[in-house]
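Tip: read the tokens left to right.
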């Protein structure tokens, strides 16, 4: 059977959509997309995750993965925020959503007057509140607090991160360096008062 140029074009488009994941059921797209994402095959995972999301699959982990793909592949933080915002409304107790929103705020938010850090701190606090046993949430919150000029509060969260992940030498070194810095600051303040 010979196809005309237009029919061939339409056939190619349909085949491309099927190959990219648009022709499979949303549940299957979610499963395949998440597996590809876990294997760091983001470009292959992205259309499948998008298909699953548009097909009505509402899983908070799918939203996280899709949001990450939107940023890393499409450089679309607004789209990622929209996906995560909707996910947070459906799953308000899912800490990783707030962690990811904190990262996006820090990296893509408005930097004047430290607005990006203030937003990141807000989301990181929510992540810590919901997932207080996750060292990474404490580490991020500590980092944002340190960057905004609150080293004492940062130290509290860095120490919690170390307690939760004592084998991480970088965390331990960070705590030791910050403790030394704060000790020197306090010594200098006492010397000035004399």
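Filled-in amino acids:
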């Amino acid at each position: 059977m010979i196809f005309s140029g237009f029919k061939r074009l339409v056939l190619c488009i349909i085949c491309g959509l099927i190959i990219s994941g648009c022709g499979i059921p949303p549940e299957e797209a979610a499963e395949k997309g998440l597996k590809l994402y876990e294997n760091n095959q983001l470009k292959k995972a992205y259309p499948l995750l998008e298909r699953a999301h548009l097909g009505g699959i509402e899983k908070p982990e799918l939203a996280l993965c899709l949001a990450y793909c939107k940023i890393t592949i499409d450089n679309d933080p607004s789209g990622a925020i929209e996906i995560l915002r909707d996910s947070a409304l459906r799953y308000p107790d899912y800490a990783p959503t707030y962690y990811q929103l904190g990262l996006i705020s820090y990296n893509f938010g408005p930097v004047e007057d430290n607005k990006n850090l203030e937003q990141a701190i807000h989301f990181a606090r929510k992540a810590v509140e919901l997932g207080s046993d996750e060292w990474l949430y404490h580490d991020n919150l500590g980092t944002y607090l340190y960057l905004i000029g609150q080293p004492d509060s940062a130290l509290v969260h860095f120490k919690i991160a170390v307690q939760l992940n004592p084998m991480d030498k970088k965390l331990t070194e960070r705590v030791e360096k910050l403790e030394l810095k704060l000790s020197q600051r306090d010594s200098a303040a006492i010397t000035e008062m004399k």
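The mean pLDDT is 89. The CA atoms of residues 40 and 60 lie 18 Å apart.
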